[in-house]
Specification:
The protein has eleven helices and no strands. The protein is an all-alpha fold.
Length: about 220
């Protein structure tokens, strides 16, 4: 099956419009449009570079990546998501497969299919995506109210620290990383770029994350 990269565009546009209109109002800062787009792109990268043509349903993988956090992180239930996908002209059987795939992408879940495995990896690699950290940096710097700024920093440190440490410590040991070599390379690249960005952050927004990272490195040594 040929890779129809343009097939994800309508769904991504719907995501962006829904987030901007507040229709998926509970999507957290780090689980919005850019996150879904990045996960879809990384899933496609793994698919291409590990030469999985004929072994993975790329349409199922990309569609699932585009909507993977709508239920867990948004205010949609499975029926809502079914309706969104049905309006895109997708068949019922395909939609059921999307729901199954997104249901198995959380960290504690064990993926059962190649599509679930790649989505799981792409989503977790995004823990260390430097663009994610750049967006946060830009948002924090745009806030002039000291109290609001402190509240946002507190929220980010709680959420990002946990995911950052899991990404650094757990992902390299995952059996799925060994199964998909391009995922290993992508994770290493993202980790290096993000550490460099955090080290050069003049406002020390990510100083706590760097400190935790250095602790894990000292422990592993």
């Amino acid at each position: 099956m040929a890779v129809k990269e343009r097939s994800i565009a309508p769904i991504l546009r719907s995501i962006g419009k829904s987030v901007n209109d507040g229709k998926i109002g509970n999507l957290e800062l780090e689980h919005g449009y850019d996150h879904h787009k990045s996960v879809a792109q990384d899933a496609l990268y793994i698919y291409k570079n590990d030469q999985l043509q004929g072994k993975v349903d790329i349409e199922l993988l990309l569609t699932s990546a585009c909507v993977h956090d709508f239920i867990q992180r948004g205010n949609l239930n499975p029926t809502d998501l079914e309706n969104i996908l049905s309006q895109k002209g997708l068949k019922d059987t395909f939609i059921k497969n999307v729901l199954r795939t997104v249901n198995n992408h959380e960290l504690e879940k064990i993926p059962d299919t190649p599509e679930e495995e790649i989505l799981w990896l792409a989503d977790k690699i995004n823990y260390l995506d430097p663009d994610r950290f750049r967006d946060v940096h830009k948002m924090v710097n745009s806030i002039t109210d000291p109290k609001k700024r402190e509240q946002l920093l507190s929220y980010l440190n709680r959420n990002f620290k946990d995911k950052w440490i899991k990404g650094v410590q757990l992902l390299p040991k995952s059996p799925l990383m060994q199964k998909y070599p391009s995922a290993q390379k992508l994770l290493a690249k993202r980790k290096e770029e993000t550490i460099e960005f955090m080290e050069n952050d003049g406002n020390n927004i990510f100083s706590d994350l760097l400190e935790e990272y250095r602790k894990t490195q000292n422990t592993s040594e």
